[in-house]
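Q: Got a minute? One more chain.
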Amino acid sequence: MSMPDFDPETLSVEERLALIDRLWLSIAKDAQQGVSSASAALDLNRPLEAALVAELHQRVEAFKRDPSKSIRWEDLRAELRQKYG
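A: Always. Here it is, folded:
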């Protein structure tokens, strides 16, 4: 597959994030419609990379040590919506 000549750096950060969101949603839609390549890309049974697992464990341990340094999901979601729409 050839990609169109496109420089993503011509877009603002907000526009690039919106593009990522639209691309991800289109892959999810294809997966729901049975497109096998999209379904494989969204395979939730695929093992996580070791680095990601290590990062998740580190974050859980940091939370256990000091929960006061964490951010409530509702607050983070509101902040992200305000910043990116």
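A: The helical segments are 13-32, 36-41, 50-65, 73-84.
Q: Perfect, thanks.
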